[in-house]
Design goal:
143 residues; alpha+beta; minor pseudopilin epsh fold; 4-stranded antiparallel sheet; 31% helix
């Protein structure tokens, strides 16, 4: 007769720790895909993405661009993405885009293409303005 030893306490702790690690990583990755963001949260993400794009342009010595993909409702730069909720409207320079477009462009000298990008959900409106001379991004809210 074959006698099997039960699992040791150490083996159980190791298995539990591995499971908790996998669940923790999955939770963090899925929390980035949350689609019920307010215009203020979207504006802050866009401001950070624009600042990153500007730093890349200066560091690499060539223009960098942030794109909006209309069909997928995604704003994307490099590996960064912002997913827009269905009820949120995007306005680039006051116009709602109907096709894919470049919504921000930064140059190696720190300058930027002129742009104002707004997110609107109901009466809540927030956006980012980009200074063409300095490339500085500033967020604002409309009431």
């Amino acid at each position: 007769m074959i006698y099997r030893h039960p699992y040791t306490l150490l083996e159980m702790i190791v298995v539990t720790a591995v499971i908790m690690l996998v669940v923790g990583v999955a939770t963090v990755n899925f929390s980035k895909l949350r689609l019920d963001k307010s215009p203020d949260e979207l504006t802050e993400e866009l401001r950070r993405m624009g600042a990153l794009c500007r730093r890349y342009a200066i560091a690499q010595g060539k223009p960098q661009e942030v794109f909006y993909y209309h069909e997928k409702r995604i704003i994307k730069f490099d590996k960064e993405s912002i997913y827009l909720p269905e009820e949120t409207k995007l306005l680039v320079n006051g116009v709602e885009p109907e096709d894919d477009l470049m919504c921000m462009k930064f140059f190696p000298d720190g300058n930027a293409a002129v742009a104002a990008i707004e997110f609107a959900a109901g009466e809540d409106v927030a956006g980012v303005r980009i200074s063409p001379l300095t490339g500085v991004l500033s967020s604002y809210e409309k009431e």
